[in-house]
Every structure is written in C-alpha cells, then in structure tokens.
Write a structure and sequence with these properties.
Number of strands: 0
Structural class: mainly alpha
Largest sheet: none
Order of helices and strands: HHHHHHHHHHHHH
Radius of gyration: 20 Å
Distance between the termini: 24 Å
Length: 272
C-alpha cells in the first residue's frame, strides 16, 4: 500500500523542489553575461532616453521635474516587461526538452513553475535596485519617508510576481523561444497605453478610458502617490486611478488566482 505523506512534509518537499529549480535558473546566468550586462545598462539607457530626450518635449503641469514624474512609471514598466522573461525561459525549456525531463522526475508539479517565477522575482529585485539607483543619480527622490517608499517597492514586486506567473502560463502554451519573443512584443502596447510617460488627460477620450483602466496605470499612480512624486490626478477620475493601491493589489491577486492554477495544470497536462 502506498503511504501518503503528511501535508506538511509534502509542502516542504515541494518547496525544496522549487528552490532547486530556482537555483538552476540562477546558475544559468553564469553562462549569460549578456543578460547580466543588460540588467546593469538598460536602466541607464531608459532614464537617459525617456528622461532627457523625450522629456525635453513633454511638459508636466506645474512645471514639475519630468524625471520625478517618469521614474515611478519606469520602475513599473521595467517590472511588467522584465517579469515576462518567464515566458521566454519556459518556452526555451519546452523546446529543449527540459520540461519533459522535469516532468519525469519525482517532484511536486507546482514546484517547477514556482521555481521559475521565484528566480524571475530575484532577478527582478536586482533590476529594481539598479533602476532606483540610476534614478537617484539623475535626480529622482522619494519624498514621503521610509514607510510609503517601502510600500511602493512592495507594490512593484507584487505586480512583478503576478506578471511573472502570467508569463509562466503563456510560456507553457508555446513550444519555441521565437514564438515567445513575438508574444512579448504584444506587451509593449499595453505598457505604452498608460500614464507611464504622459498624463492620460491629454489622450483622446476612448484611449484615455483604456489607459485609466490599465492595471499598469493604477500601479504607476500608486507609486507616484507613495513616493510623493508629481502626476497623481485629483478630482473626477476613474475608480482605479482614484484608488490606485487597492486597484494594484486587486489586479495582482486576480492575475495570481487565475494564472497559478492554470500554469500548474498546463504543466501537468503536457505530461499526458
């Protein structure tokens, strides 16, 4: 008779399996110096490009510093796009047969995607630190104290982790890295149609509605409010913009509630 392990032991072994997958993904970075260089240089280029080239042509109400307006948007945008690296990582492993190998091993099924997203989150923390440091160098500041500042970074990481699970689900649906790369380009319009770079008030009405209900806009507004940076709208606004913290947490939890079980089920289904 097969003996069923206690729930605590099963959870502990699953977490250990997930940590093993996470460490495997992190160790692969030793063979990808280009990715490490990109994590260090892309934040500098983004601040220079958007802050000083595009920013010179964009006016902010009240004459506020555009870098102060922009940085929360860049931090959220970097999280949204960086988290989707899980999409290409899982698609690559699918194409190389790594996922088939993992399915054949005696390990918890949910541990594989958990390990993938955990590795993505750790890499994202490094990118967030680098981006923040670059912003500080170029004049960005958080003005509301340590508590709200940590709250803003916590929201960014929660949003990052949720999007990484969306990437895990999408990655389990494709078999090649090339297809995954094409899917990632679809995220650009979602990020661009938001308040990352410009206030939505100046957009055409239909586009403004889409931008205001975009979860990216809520996350950016929440961070601007918590950091004490300019660009938080007042008066008659849509519900996500009027309640940005609640909207960001809610959208992240909805993404997690949908994508975690579907990604794990897809991993199991591919084994059948």
């Amino acid at each position: 008779m097969t003996q069923t392990l206690p729930r605590a032991s099963t959870l502990a072994s699953g977490l250990a399996d997930g940590v093993t997958v996470m460490n495997r993904n992190l160790r692969k970075l030793r063979h990808k110096p280009g990715q490490i260089i990109a994590e260090l240089t892309v934040p500098v280029m983004m601040v220079l490009l958007f802050g000083y080239i595009f920013g010179s042509a964009i006016a902010i109400d009240g004459g506020d510093n555009y870098i102060e307006y922009l940085m929360p948007g860049l931090l959220v945008m970097g999280a949204a796009l960086g988290a989707l690296s899980t999409l290409t990582a899982i698609a690559r492993d699918n194409s190389l047969g790594v996922m088939d190998r993992l399915r054949s091993m005696p390990m918890a099924r949910w541990a594989v995607t958990f390990g993938q997203t955990a590795a993505t989150l750790l890499i994202g923390i490094v990118g967030l630190v680098v981006m923040s440091a670059v912003g500080l160098i170029f004049g960005w500041r958080a003005h509301n104290g340590i508590g709200p500042t940590l709250g803003a970074f916590g929201l960014i990481l929660l949003f990052y982790y949720a999007v990484s699970w969306l990437g895990a689900l999408l990655g389990s649906l494709v078999d090649t890295e090339e297809t995954a790369t094409r899917l990632m380009t679809l995220a650009l319009p979602i990020v661009m149609i938001s308040n990352v770079f410009v206030p939505t008030a100046g957009m055409p009405k239909a586009l403004q509605v889409v931008a205001d209900w975009n979860p990216v806009s809520a996350a950016v507004t929440a961070c601007r409010d918590l950091f004490g940076n300019p660009g938080v709208p007042f008066g008659d606004t849509t519900w996500p913009i009027a309640n940005p913290v609640l909207a960001t947490v809610g959208s992240a939890l909805v993404i997690l509630a949908i994508c975690i079980p579907l990604a794990v089920m897809r991993f199991q289904k591919n084994a059948d």
